[in-house]
User: Fold these one by one.
Assistant:
Number 1:
Amino acid sequence: MADPLPLLRTADQILAQFDNGQFLHDFLLEHQELVVAMHTHQMAHGGKAKGKVVITLDYILGKQLTITAEAEAKFTKPKTPKAAATLWTTADGDLTPQNPQQPSLPGIRDVTPTAQAMRT
C-alpha cells in the first residue's frame, strides 16, 4: 500500500511552500516589525495605532491539474500624525500666533515661585 499523500490543510503549511519557506520566514519578521511600529506609535502619540497586513495568493491551474502559485504580503504601518498649529489671520492677510482680538496686557510678568531646598 502506498504512503498517503501529504496534505496541506492549514494556512501556515501553505505559506511555508513559497520559496522553500523563505516567504513565511520573511512574513513573520515583517509582522513583528509591524507590531513594534504600532507599539512605538501608540507610545509616542497615544490613541489607537492602526496597521494592516494583506496576503495575496495568485493561483493558476494548469491542464495537468498542477497549480502554479505566487504569494505577496503587503504591510501598512501607522502613519505619523500631521504637524498642527493654531494661527490667526489679520485683515492684511498675514498669520500670527496670537489672537488679534485679545488685548495684550503690558507689564504682566511671571510670578511662579522658584524651587527652594527643603529644610530637614
Number 2:
Amino acid sequence: MKPDDELCLCFHVSWRKVINYIRVHRIQRPSQLAECGGAGTGCGWCRKQLERLTHLVTEVPPPSDEVEQWLADRSPNKEIYAQGRSKYRQELGLEDRPSDRSS
C-alpha cells in the first residue's frame, strides 16, 4: 500500500490520514478513529487494520520522511485488500455499489 491509498474503502479514508490522526490525537483505541472521517464505521472490513495500525503507530511511529516504506513493509497489497473486502461484504450479504469499489 501507499500512504494515499484508501484504508477505509467505505468512507475513502487514506492510510496517511489515519496514521497522522493517530499521531496528532494520540489515539489509544481503534474505536477513537471513528472521528477520523468515519473510519471503521461502515462495513467493518478495515477494523482489523485500524487496530493493527493503532498499535504499530503507537509503539513505533513511522519517521515522517520514511512513511511510504514503513507502510509498504507493514500493509497488505492494495488489490488483495480490495478483493478481500468484496468477499467480506458478499459473505455479509452486502452489495458493493460502484462508489464502494476500489479503483
Number 3:
Amino acid sequence: MKRFFGSQAIDYTWTLQKGAAFVRNFADGFTDYTGSREENISRLRSAFKATDAIVIGAGAGLSTAAGFTYSGERFKKYFFDFQEHFGIRDMYSGGFYPFPDEETRWAWWARNIYFNRYVDAPKPVYQDLLALVKNKDYFVITTNVDHQFQRIGFAKQRLFYTQGDYGLFQSATGKIKQTYDNEKWVMEAMAAQGFIRDEQGRFQMPQDGRISLRIPQKLIPVCPDDGSPVAMNLRADETFVEDAGWHAAADRYAAYLSAHEGRKILFFEIGVGANTPMIIKYPFWAMTAENPQAFYACLNFDEAICPEKIRIRSICIDGDSSDVLSAIV
C-alpha cells in the first residue's frame, strides 16, 4: 500500500502525483507498436481472462465511439436554431458562448444536458465493455460526464467520475459544497422549449420543427439552499464542487488500488486524449511500471502509445473503440 499511497491510503490525488513523477523522470521514449492488430486483440482477450482485477480508465473518445458526437448531424438536428441565430457550430463551444440573457443560456444547457445525459448512446459500446467486465473484479475512473456507465448497468460503487456530472447543478461560486440533481428541471425546460415526448418518454423534435430558443424566466434554476445562481457541476476552474459523493468515490478508487497492489491487474485505458493525461494515462503508466504483475492496455484512435519501459507488458491498439470492443466480445 505504501508504494502507491504512502501515509495517505485513501487519497486519490497521490495517483496523480505518482503519474507526474513518472513522466518527469521518464527518459526511455515511447512506442506505438506492441504487435499487429490481430495479435493485440488476442493478447487483450488473454489479459482479460488472466487478470485478477481490471481498472478501466475512460476518456471522451469512448463516448465519441458510442455516438455521442458534439458536432455534425447530431448537433444540427437538435441545435439548428442556435447555429442559425448565434453561429454556434458544436455543443462544446456553445457551453462558453456569451448568450444575451439567462433564459437563452439555460435553454441551451437544458438541451445539452438532456441529449448528453438523459438518453442512451446510439451505439452499444458501453454495453460491449460491460459484457467484458461484468463478471470480473473491476473499477472505473472516467473523465466523462455523461453518466453512460451507470445508465448501462455498471455498479455505482465501482465508478469514479472525476470531472463532474451533467446531471448535477452546484452553486455558481462553489462555496456551498453540495450538488443538486437536475433531472426534473431538465424535463420541464425541454417541454417549455416545445420538445415532445414520444411513446417511450423520450423528447423529440415536434413535427413542425418549431421550438423556442428560450425558457420562461421562472424556470431559470437557482440554488435550493439560498436562491443564488447555479452552474453545471463540471470541472472548469477552482469553483468546481467536490461533494461528499465525489470524495466517497475517490476514496473507493484509492482503496481498490491499494487492495490490489502487487497482484495481476490490467490497467485498461480507452479513449483518453492529450487534454487531461495526468488523471488516467500517467498514473496508469506509473502503476504498471511499479508492479511486475500489471499489464497496460491502450485503446485509442491515432493516440495509442506506451512508454518503452513497459512495452513488453503493454497492448496498444489504434482504432475505433466501438469496432475493437465488439471484436473482443
